[in-house]
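step 3/5: co-fold with NAP
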Amino acid sequence: MSAIFSADDLTSGGGVFSRLRPPARLCVFGAPVDHSKSPAFQNAALVAAGIDAAYVRIHVPPEKAAAAFRALPGAGFLGANVTIPLKAAALAAVDEADDYARRSGSVNTVVVRDGLLLGFNTDGPGLSRAIREEFSVDLRDLRVVLLGAGGGAGRAIAVQCAAESCERLVLVNRTVEKARALAAELAPAFRSDRLLGPTDRVQVIGFGESELREQLSRADLVINATSVGMRRTDPPLIPAPLFTPNLMVYDTVYGSGTSRLLEDAAAAGARCANGLGMLLHQGALSFEIWFDRPAPLDVMRRALGEAA
Ligand code: NAP
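step 4/5: write tokens
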């Protein structure tokens, strides 16, 4: 693994980045950032595309985020990715954000252009591509149950489901009020003449077993966008008996093992996939935004597979 740089390396002029060979021109900001697999596949993409630039990890604590974003142009960076917990701070820091990032309330991709910072969010579109690839279906044709709708990733995915007008969207969140507020925002996208019976196309529930049972019995796809999953001590988000073989289950969490959610779902015969596909596609979309050309997806996929 390559070195991890600090926010101070950026705000002190960024000379350390220009002295690298190739020079660091792209980065990921996060806290923590050591787990990030983005350098593995973004550097492979840069080599494959013949671009003389490196992609590095920069540990940026929240209190240093605003200064670190401001320092990107002066330090010679073309752009950045942003991960936990800085995506909302990134939206506040950029000079302009596209409509999708504004509606998602967060930015995961920053572009430096003419000294200005432009913000985008590729998490939702990345998830959409991953679902198509893993399950050969489009979000628009699915009844989706989204766990963790109140978080940053959950919100971006909900906005994507609304943009694609999926058949039905059930927002599940521990703090139900957050999901209710989001449902109210998204409701106009779900007003249509589709005839699905008397139930609203956007619903909000908590993690109560009976509500989950009812909604899962009418769902096609379950997406986990909570931060619960990889620790063996994590409680089950969904009781195992509620999974059925007709479900597709996508866990945005990824790591070296299989999450409990996917273990339980697979044991019930459901089709399952972890968040590596979303990671790959959100990164490929970032590359396309930075360089305005198709990303070398096969190279990136191979590099991610070797790093995972
Ligand atoms: P976040 O903003 O902190 O949101 C966390 C979400 O998890 C909230 O909805 C929160 O509910 C919920 N939650 C936390 N603990 C819970 C518990 N014990 N029971 C039920 N719900 C709980 O985090 P985030 O940035 O959205 O990230 C969430 C996950 O998405 C992370 O695991 C991250 O790795 C993954 N992700 C993956 C990709 C990818 O490319 N694969 C991209 C982005 C994010 P409350 O609202 O009630 O607090």
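step 5/5: annotate
The CA atoms of residues 223 and 280 lie 17 Å apart.
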